[in-house]
Amino acid sequence: MKATDDIFNTLTLSSVVSNLDKNPHLANLKKQLSNEVEESTEVGQYIVENLKRLQSVSEELSNKKPSEINSVFSHSLASSWRFLLNYKNMAGIYQFINGAHSYVGSTRDLHQRCYVQHRLDAFKKFKRHILFYTNVITHGWINFTFRILAFVPNHLEAFTKIYNIKRDLTEKEINLLNILLSFELTLLEQVYLDLIKPDLNGSTFANWSSTNKGATGYVRSDEQNEQTSLSHLNRIYSEETKELHRINNLGKNLSNSTKEKMYKSHGGVGVKLVDINANNTIVEFKTKSLLAKELDISFRTVSRWIEDGKIHSTKSLKYPKVKLII
């Protein structure tokens, strides 16, 4: 058994009902680390040592009562938010408290998440974190206290410093260290959720938010996205549906920016196809629609392939392997 697997099997909270083994996001990160870490390498050794550290931290926390959980920083929001400027690009677990109510979260950037996002998003019309933000709207930020429960190290910087790395890190090393950061944030957030049981969180699972999971919180695979995209290709709307769309848009004044987005979404923008099998020959298409028709894919797929910048295989005999650029 690999050392990573051995450590993962002992990560639990003995004194509370824990969701560590039930959290699907945590399970996915465990799987990635277990499958990809080579323990004989420097980065592998670094990751194993940090997993042991996390094992010790979780065991220590499991013996605490909620009232015994200390914060490394606490500040009333009645006076100011400017203190968060000191925590730019710093990762950690945080808590917002209003009397007996609280919300716990994790982030790679405490300033960005709490000062830029939470502070403003609470008062936006379309928002997430309904329980949390409703409490904010009802009572105001001035009644909240902000706490940092734990800091999480920047593993890219820490690994480089500890192993005195003078070279550029490889893509695999960077990826593994980022997965480790995601794992630590998710693990610690889950530990604190299990211990504190905050009533303003919408879920009992820690949900690391680097991926946009949409309204449902469910992460779709590339294959699922592709299948959904193909299912929408050449879709025929009924006259009733068309009429409902027409009525819904009646009288709307669209900004130039919106018109431009609509124009582009309907294929009205030039696209370049890099033909990988023809020595990266570039073929230009006047619109997305022409390219979508050539490759037998949807507009959504064209947009997604442009955005991800990756090489994709197609069903086209003429262009079996392509990369799309603007």
Care to describe what's here?
The protein has 326 residues and is an alpha+beta fold. The chain has helices at residues 3-10, 24-36, 42-62, 110-121, 130-139, 155-162, 171-196, 222-231, 239-249, 256-265, 288-295, 299-308; strands at 73-76, 91-98, 101-107, 145-152, 271-275, 281-285, 312-313, 321-325. The longest helix has 26 residues, at 171-196. The protein has three domains: 3-67 and 151-196, no CATH class; 71-147, GIY-YIG endonuclease, CATH 3.40.1440; 266-326, Arc Repressor Mutant, subunit A (Orthogonal Bundle), CATH 1.10.10. A four-stranded antiparallel β-sheet has the order 1-4-2-3. A four-stranded antiparallel β-sheet has the order 6-5-8-7. InterPro entries: GIY-YIG_endonuc, GIY-YIG_endonuc_sf, Intron_endoG1. Residues 91-158 form the GIY-YIG domain. Keywords: Endonuclease, Hydrolase, Mitochondrion, Nuclease. This is GIY-YIG endonuclease.
% residues in beta strands: 5-15%
User: What's the number of structural domains?
Assistant: 3
Q: What string, H for helix and E for strand, traces the elements in order? A: HHHEEEHHEHHHHHEEHHEE
Helix share bin: 40-55%
Q: Number of helical segments?
A: 12
Counting helices, strands and paired strands, the structural category is: alpha+beta
Largest sheet: 4 strands, antiparallel
Alpha-carbon Rg, integer: 24 Å
Shape: globular
First-residue to last-residue Cα separation: 48 Å
Major beta sheet, strand line-up: 1-4-2-3
Low-confidence stretches: 208-219
Number of strands: 8
